[in-house]
Amino acid sequence: MNDFAQLYGRPSEGEWAAPGRVNLIGEHTDYNLGFVLPIALPQTVRAQAARSGDGQLRLWSAQGRELVALRVDDLAPGSVPGWAGYPAGVVWALREAGHPVGGADLRLDSDVPSGAGLSSSAALECVVAAAYNDLYGLGLSAAELAVLAQRAENAFVGVPCGIMDQMASMCCRPGAALFLDSRDLTMRQVPVDLAGAGLALLVLDTRVKHDLGDGAYAALRAGCERAAALLGLPALRSLQPSGLADALAQLPPELVPLVRHVVTENARVEAAVARLDAGDPAALGPILTAGHASLRDDYRVSCPETDLAVEAAVAAGAHGARMTGGGFGGSVIALVDADAAGHVAAEVTAAFRAAGYAEPRTLTAVPAEGARRLR
Ligand code: ADP
Ligand code: MG
């Protein structure tokens, strides 16, 4: 049931995959035009696709379990509710940018946990962007496709996310973290040999997503933009740690912790890259934990569940841990000795049980490949 031919009465022209991601460090820095350091997950959204000649975009997802049919000419921001807005938004963004694309039939399937802070939404956008790029022979680069996918999420779905998730899903490479400068999208693949150092990266999905997230994200972003304007800067990225104390003295009190987080977080990304370049991934641990404290105390996007996961992981011997993703729930990453991964996961699970929380879902993150054609 529900294979491509059964859904659409013809074979697909190909199949593409795009991964979810975890960000090692650099949270809420991308929309301040700063640094991020994500890795792609082995978990992907996959799309089987074929062009349609009738101007229709037909979408079916093994997770959404409904067939959505849209006229490409009618696509407009806000017009497509629910999950279909992400793929439809990509087609809209391509056409808005002047690319001559028409309809397609898509069959989507995914093993990226959805709503867990692992960026299933960007994976969904990016797999559609990659499929359209090949099907319609657009010849766009991975970074160009990421920018269009972000535009789909910002302008079509209405989520004011930065560029990290889409760049991670499009541009990551196996065995490496993507050191991305969000100001000009310059990037460097930084080798991350966790296994060689006897380490593993645990992902603890708290399975909570507190509702205040969406409005709070926009408010935080607006606060950063207001602070940059008050300081006469194009973006908070331009503020160096050496100028932080002077800058904070000029700001209204409510903006002080936001600016302190962004400036110290950018410095933490640079410190993390230096440790990886030095071949010392274990030294990321304290940087991760310091990043979590900054998200909890200054940026205030943490929540009791993510705080508990970080505390329990560190108490169980993790080198360091932090919330990853936008916040208010989602996932925590913990850098652990590979032979202690089971113990740390069990200790976090026990702490959640004792607190009366649902058990976290655990996976191990291995730096994997960005979006690609499978066949
Ligand atoms: P995250 O990106 O952290 O997973 P979001 O809330 O940004 O969380 O995106 C999750 C949304 O993306 C889902 O609610 C759904 O609308 C959409 N989505 C993700 N994966 C799929 C899929 N395989 N099929 C259909 N919709 C999906
Ligand atoms: Mg998302």
UniProtKB/TrEMBL annotation:
Binding site for substrate: 27-30, 217
Domain Galactokinase N-terminal residues, every copy: 3-50
Protein name: Galactokinase
Family statement: Belongs to the GHMP kinase family. GalK subfamily.
One Pfam family here: GHMP_kinases_N
Gene assigned in the entry: galK
Record organism: Kitasatospora xanthocidica
PROSITE patterns given in the database record: GALACTOKINASE, GHMP_KINASES_ATP
Marked site (Transition state stabilizer) residue numbers: 21
EC numbers, comma separated: 2.7.1.6
Keyword Cell cycle: no
Domain GHMP kinase C-terminal, chain residue ranges per copy: 276-353
Keyword terms, alphabetized: ATP-binding, Carbohydrate metabolism, Cytoplasm, Galactose metabolism, Kinase, Magnesium, Metal-binding, Nucleotide-binding, Transferase
Record-level GO BP terms: galactose metabolic process
Domain named GHMP kinase N-terminal: residues: 87-171
